[in-house]
Task: inverse folding
């Protein structure tokens, strides 16, 4: 048990219940007082939708060094090498721990089955239930968490990070009633943000409703640095059928041999990269985007016929979802187009998940740890969540035991009390259209300026939030505005930040854009 002179409710509050949050809480629960706060039910986390799996160098003939090289190459010069080292070297131990915790990865003849995904130099993706990896991992971790003694607070929105008078995080305020602004305070020695991504801020997204970037807004508003907000990754192949959700068609389908073709059946990605369907995600998304612009068609197609009848066995969730919309993936091509999928940018953290605000830690998609650079390598995100959540919570507990308790000071909210005249539904619609149109797969200055103006207008109009729906919209608008500002500032194309008006990468931009609410933006050049 952590020893602190002034009693707090908890040693650590973990915000979020995806794989990063669950893993952080499980690592802390045996030795500390832990609360997990989650927006929905415990099992609503974004990670459960992960299909492709977890990349780790565990196979015969693989090596963390090879995984390191692939990750660095995908990141287009902006990965933090020391963070990637940590990821690839600690990754295999985290995978073994998952197996000890009861996760059943798919095997064949007693050996782990490893899949191929784009830009990996060899098959190294562990998966479970075929294409249900996230669900399998979350189910095992939730079972363990329920028995761990950690307190779980469901259906609660975090509306602010509490800070001491000397500027350290010391808990969170939460609200559980959408109709009221009434908040409850949870005091803690440290806070670990694991609240997931922001891709649901775009009109077309593979993510669940909850992925609206509120963790970034909370940390920024409390005074932490955020970085890399211009790097929103678009998945090349989301289901594109009228009336169907933008359901993810995993990269692993291409890894098994499926082709991307246009209406005439031509594999056009080969025109831009000899690796074709297995080129980096940024290359494939751009190729599809340009094909759609050129042809005026609403989608291209994923042709699974090279996989044959095996496709439905290997990808049961994808086959069942497509079947629900009348599509037999073994016989009919799947209509697909890009959709917002993963936010690389986030709360700037060091190798131990520490943000620049003392006592505040971040891990998983809400963090910008430096492992993904300008373009995330497929299936590195669950690994990042596992590796850095454990580092973050370990460091948070160390901080909690060593730092003297401060006097609770201000609660930093993402808004100040004033009435808002904006209808939240209209505000959400404005944000989502603005980002999709102006800050989509390919952007330019005028589109970004227009998007920025719209997001800022929503942010300002909701700064008087007194009810939870308006506070949520305000947080989303704050994060969306950071995306636009960063994408405008980075005057080059690199990885998943593609500017049609500035199509080349520039040495001048070899570094990270870091933003702070009082100090503005700065550029941290890589050496
Ligand atoms: C996929 O299965 O294609 C998604 C995996 C990922 O985003 O890493």
Result:
């Amino acid at each position: 048990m952590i020893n602190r002179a002034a009693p707090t409710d908890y040693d650590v509050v973990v915000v979020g219940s995806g794989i990063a949050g669950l893993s952080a809480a499980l690592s802390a629960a045996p030795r500390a007082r832990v609360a997990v706060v989650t927006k929905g039910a415990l099992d609503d986390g974004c990670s459960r939708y992960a299909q492709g799996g977890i990349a780790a160098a565990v196979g015969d003939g693989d090596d963390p060094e090879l995984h390191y090289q692939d990750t660095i190459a995908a990141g287009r010069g902006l990965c933090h090498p020391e963070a990637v080292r940590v990821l690839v070297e600690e990754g295999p131990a985290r995978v073994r721990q998952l197996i000890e915790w009861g996760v059943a990865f798919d095997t064949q003849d007693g050996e782990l089955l490893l899949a191929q995904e784009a830009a990996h130099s060899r098959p190294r993706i562990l998966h479970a239930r075929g294409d249900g990896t996230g669900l399998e991992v979350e189910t095992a971790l939730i079972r363990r968490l329920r028995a761990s003694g950690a307190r779980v607070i469901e259906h609660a929105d975090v509306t602010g990070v509490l800070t001491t008078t000397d500027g350290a995080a010391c808990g969170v305020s939460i609200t559980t009633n959408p109709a009221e602004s009434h908040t409850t305070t949870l005091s803690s020695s440290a806070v670990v943000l694991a609240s997931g991504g922001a891709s649901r801020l775009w009109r077309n997204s593979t993510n669940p409703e909850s992925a609206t970037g509120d963790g970034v807004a909370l940390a920024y508003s409390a005074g932490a640095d955020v970085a890399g907000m211009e790097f929103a990754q678009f998945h090349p192949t989301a289901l594109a059928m009228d009336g169907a959700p933008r359901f993810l068609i995993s990269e692993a389908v291409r890894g098994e041999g499926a082709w991307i073709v246009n209406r005439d059946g031509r594999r056009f990605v080969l025109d831009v990269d000899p690796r074709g369907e297995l080129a980096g995600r940024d290359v494939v998304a751009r190729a599809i985007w340009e094909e759609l612009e050129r042809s005026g068609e609403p989608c291209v197609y994923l042709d699974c016929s090279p996989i044959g009848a095996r496709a439905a066995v290997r990808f049961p969730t994808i086959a069942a979802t497509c079947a629900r919309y009348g599509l037999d993936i073994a016989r009919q091509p799947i209509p697909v187009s890009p959709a917002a999928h993963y936010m690389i940018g986030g709360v700037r953290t060091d190798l131990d998940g520490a943000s620049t605000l003392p006592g505040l830690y971040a891990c998983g998609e809400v963090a910008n740890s430096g492992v993904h650079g300008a373009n995330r390598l497929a299936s590195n995100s669950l690994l990042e969540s596992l590796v850095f959540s454990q580092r973050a919570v370990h460091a948070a507990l160390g901080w909690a035991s060593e730092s003297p308790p401060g006097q609770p000071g201000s609660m930093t909210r993402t808004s100040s009390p004033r009435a808002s005249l904006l209808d939240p539904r209209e505000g959400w619609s404005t944000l989502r259209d603005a980002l999709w149109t102006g800050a989509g797969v390919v952007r330019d200055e005028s589109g970004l300026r227009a998007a920025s103006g719209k997001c800022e207008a929503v942010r300002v109009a909701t700064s008087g939030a007194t009810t939870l729906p308006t506070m949520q919209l305000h947080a989303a608008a704050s994060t969306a505005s950071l995306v636009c500002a960063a994408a405008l500032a980075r005057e080059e194309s690199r990885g998943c930040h593609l500017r049609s008006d500035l199509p080349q990468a520039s040495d001048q931009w070899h570094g990270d854009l870091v933003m702070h609410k009082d100090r503005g933006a700065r550029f941290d050049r890589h050496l």
